[in-house]
């Protein structure tokens, strides 16, 4: 039990949420930012997710913010990213849905943050992805990655008998 608790704490500190029972931490970023900021974050999101899609989670450490690096190690980060995406299969498509900016992040130091959300379809079905960035030295660096499978009951496609 102690090992499980320690693992859970490390996952929360690293920004990965591999639990299917917990919702993504409430991270709101309602400021739309400038068009330039949106392009920068969209590019950083695409680059980060491309590394994950290519199975190169170990190479994402270079994109991680020093704020996150101070709370975890490269090995833990890489392993948790792999665990979060385990069993998804190959990417079929991904669409960005929202990008927002804020200067307040729950549990984080003051700074400029961005939240990029995407809906992706993998071989095993659709997921919601959220990448949280912090601006460090004029570059957007990752401070969190959250992925949640979309669950449907299948009932929405069935017609009620007449």
Produce the secondary structure layout.
Blueprint: H1 2-14, E1 16-17, H2 35-53, H3 66-69, H4 74-85, E2 91-102, E3 113-122, E4 125-136, E5 139-149
Parallel strand pairs: 1-5
Antiparallel strand pairs: 2-3, 3-4, 4-5
Q: Provide the residue-averaged pLDDT.
A: 81
The rough form would be described as globular
- Give the C-alpha Rg: 17 Å
For the record, what CATH class applies?
A: Alpha Beta
> What structural class do helix, strand and pairing data support?
alpha+beta
What is the domain total for the residues?
1
> What's the architecture, going by CATH?
Roll
Largest sheet, described in full? 5 strands, mixed
What is the fourth-level CATH superfamily?
A: NTF2-like, domain 1
Strand content: 25-35%
Low-confidence stretches: 1-24
User: What is the helix fraction of residues, given as a range?
Assistant: 25-40%
As laid out across the biggest beta sheet, the strand order is: 1-5-4-3-2
Return the CATH topology.
Nuclear Transport Factor 2, Chain: A
Beta strand count: 5
List SSEs in N-to-C order: HEHHHEEEE
Describe the protein's architecture and organization.
The chain has four helices and five strands, in the order H-E-H-H-H-E-E-E-E. It is of the alpha+beta class and 162 residues long. The chain has a single domain (27-151), classed as Roll (Nuclear Transport Factor 2, Chain: A). Strands 1-5-4-3-2 form a five-stranded mixed beta sheet. The protein is globular, with a radius of gyration of 17 Å. The N and C termini lie far apart (52 Å). Mean pLDDT is 81; it is low at 1-24.
């Amino acid at each position: 039990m102690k090992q499980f608790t320690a693992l859970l704490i490390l996952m929360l500190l690293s920004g990965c949420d591999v639990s299917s029972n917990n919702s993504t931490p409430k991270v709101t970023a309602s400021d739309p930012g400038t068009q330039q900021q949106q392009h920068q974050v969209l590019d950083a999101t695409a680059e980060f997710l491309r590394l994950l899609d290519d199975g190169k989670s170990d190479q994402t450490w270079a994109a991680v913010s020093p704020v996150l690096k101070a709370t975890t190690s490269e090995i833990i980060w890489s392993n948790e990213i792999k665990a979060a995406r385990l069993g998804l299969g190959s990417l079929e498509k991904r669409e960005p849905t929202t990008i927002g900016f804020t200067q307040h992040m729950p549990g984080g130091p003051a700074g400029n943050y961005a939240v990029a959300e995407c809906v992706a379809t993998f071989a095993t079905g659709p997921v919601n992805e959220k990448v949280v960035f912090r601006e460090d030295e004029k570059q957007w660096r990752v401070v969190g990655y959250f992925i949640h499978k979309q669950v449907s009951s299948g009932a929405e496609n069935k017609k009620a008998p007449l």
